[in-house]
């Protein structure tokens, strides 16, 4: 008996929906950070885009925060399990002193929490922020580590055969957040 | 995403595809940037072991591999010929069996016999990295040379490099010229006729003198070390003669300075033979950059190779 898998894609956020959620993140950061010495660090690839977008919104409101980038490939805990996988490494670029800052990590989706665990290790090799927080566009649940975001655009509960696809114009040439469902039929 | 296939060993340059070369050279760049941080180490190879097996004296290459492995958080064991049972008569295959039992994940090997790293690679699950075998190959040297040249000449295709010296005895010349050629860099050679093998370097221009070299107009001059320990035959009359004919003296250096030519050398240098003290202070010397890039490239290679020790 053969199994075929069917993939369905549902749009959860439109481009203007994403814009609203970016504003939600910006509001949260404004409300909680006040005049703190805040630094943004985006996780490659789309976390960087998200950090830049939130920074842009805040800049229009008169708050300018530096944005650094972090590639966590070298900090992953599944280096052996990837099999024939060849990560193309990006240059992490944090061109400002991270020591003593209120650093906010950005990623587009939080799932198991393992990426964030790796990012925390990576970030702390650059210095010692006074505090590290986490901002995500989407929280899809299913944590495997005790890591929770401080700023969330939207929470989208997912089943184990579903995942969230975030697409940004800058990285993917299209824009939107999609819920992808893979179902097997016999 | 890519057509890269898992590769266990790095034995030479000839067998590498252009895609593999690009992959390693591009990944070496972020590794190099780690050296600017106060914490230069990443946890990628935590729990892995790297065995440095040097049957020939080497300080630079073995310590470069050691630093590269340490910065990836691997554990490094150095196994040098003078202090091992090899001097007590153990055969190569018995040594390999011992090493296999130690369950190293990566074996870095230098040996005077061409092809020895290949034999070791066939008999072990570990990834084998050739750190120089006889006159055959020195692939990580070639990769670090390419990385260094690409940094100063980002539009490297069609650029020209002349390799000066003892081409015959040089695995560096062999690997580096092969890699440069694969990248579309033109390679020329200058050296005593007795030290330039016939046939092997068909794709390279041969020059008779420095004047011819300057007429050709290379972007970089790559000086080889005169391997005094390998001059078993009489290949040239003497050191003074060599220096006069092929050494980078003051006049040649000022020509390079006028033309903005880069200077490369795999080290260690023989001052007064292939270079002068003055040349060592040349502002367009890339010699220290080569050392730094050597660590980055070796990190990228260790990160890329897939040992077969992980499945069981």
Please provide a written account of the structure.
The complex is a heterodimer of chains A (186) and B (312). Chain A has 186 residues and is of the alpha/beta class. Chain A has a single domain (16-158), classed as Rossmann fold. Chain A has four helices and eight strands; from the N terminus they run βαβαββαβββαβ. Chain A has helices spanning 15-33, 46-60, 114-124, 169-172; strands at 4-13, 38-43, 67-70, 102-110, 131-139, 151-155, 162-167, 176-185. A five-stranded parallel β-sheet of chain A has the order 3-2-4-5-6. A three-stranded antiparallel β-sheet of chain A has the order 1-8-7. In chain A, strand 2 (38-43), helix 2 and strand 3 (67-70) form a beta-alpha-beta unit. Chain A is globular. The termini of chain A are close together. Chain B is α/β, with parallel strands linked by helices and 312 residues long. Chain B is 38% helix and 14% strand. Chain B is built from eleven helices and nine strands. Chain B has helices at 18-34, 60-71, 92-102, 116-122, 139-152, 171-182, 210-216, 239-246, 250-259, 277-280, 287-304, and strands spanning 49-54, 75-80, 106-111, 127-133, 160-164, 186-190, 205-207, 220-223, 262-264. In chain B, helix 2 (60-71) links the parallel strand 1 and strand 2. In chain B, helix 2 packs across helix 11 (287-304). Chain B is globular, with a radius of gyration of 20 Å. Classes of the chains: A alpha/beta (186), B alpha/beta (312).
